[in-house]
Amino acid sequence: MGTACRADQVLTGVGRIMTLSTNQYWNEYYDAGRDFLPATTADLDQFPTSLSLSASGDHHTALDIGCGTGQLTRELYHRGFRVLGVDASTSAIATARRATTASTATLRYLRRDVERDGIDRTLPLAPYNLVTCRYVYAFIKDKRRLLQSIASVLLPGGAFVLITPLIGSVPPHKRGIAVDADETRALLAELFSVTSHERTGDGYYVCRLREGGEHAR
Ligand SMILES: C[S@@+](CC[C@H](N)C(=O)[O-])C[C@H]1O[C@@H](n2cnc3c(N)ncnc32)[C@H](O)[C@@H]1O
């Protein structure tokens, strides 16, 4: 595995996203042997307890958006989820697939640009008890549209967990990898009931479909 970095330590060329396709930009990154820090207990232990592994063996389903090389995706799998990781980068998906010996029925990866190709219930394992998005949200141009599509693939009682750097926690020239906390909370609140906290400069949001809301099923 390549060098592990925090997003704000390495994405100095974030402006290049403007000139390359999402796939090309992120392929350059992963092909250089770089990667991100593995998912930590801090990433996972705040997940809604109702989404822990079912004792009956009836495993919950999860979708990891912008999964990269599968750092969080594999953790979800090891915690009992049947999980699909999607990412725009062919290199990231190839690395994620090489890193697993798990059954392809329960830990799956798909190359997909969620802005170009969307997210819907035709995806493998959909609908989902859990949708995660770690260090990806800042790169999404139409955030409202992404959130609407996430709401449409969540099962009743399911949750969307968003982890993202916040502006203020990164130097000015790296604002492109971070989001405004107030704006993010307001946008999430259009669709979800949200609990959030700040964790070493990252926003950590646990979002549940609002009961009776447009997307509640
Ligand atoms: C900073 S990395 C985070 C990777 C992973 N979530 C993690 O925590 O290790 C951002 C990832 O988002 C992916 N990404 C960016 N825009 C995307 C899009 N529109 N659709 C799917 N994946 C995207 C990139 O390819 C990259 O792998």
Can you give a write-up of this model?
By secondary structure, the protein is an alpha/beta fold. It has helices at residues 7-10, 22-31, 41-44, 71-78, 90-98, 143-153, 181-189; strands at residues 3-5, 34-36, 61-65, 82-87, 107-111, 128-134, 154-165, 192-199, 202-209. A 7-stranded mixed beta sheet has the order 5-4-3-6-7-9-8, with helices on both faces. Strands 1-2 form a two-stranded parallel sheet. Bound molecules: S-adenosylmethionine. S-adenosylmethionine binds at residues 7, 22, 26, 36, 66-68, 71-72, 87-89, 92, 113-115, 134-136, 139.
Outline of this structure?
By secondary structure, the chain is α/β, with parallel strands linked by helices. Helices cover 25% and strands 26% of the residues. The chain is built from 7 helices and 9 strands, in the order βααβαβαβαββαβαββ.
What is the architecture at the second tier of CATH? Answer: 3-Layer(aba) Sandwich
- Which spans of ≥5 residues are poorly predicted at pLDDT below 50? none
SSE string:
EHHEHEHEHEEHEHEE
- Within the CATH hierarchy, at the fold level, what is the topology? Rossmann fold
Q: Portion of residues in helices? A: 25-40%
- What small ligands are held by the chains? S-adenosylmethionine
First-residue to last-residue Cα separation: 41 Å
- Oligomeric assembly: single chain
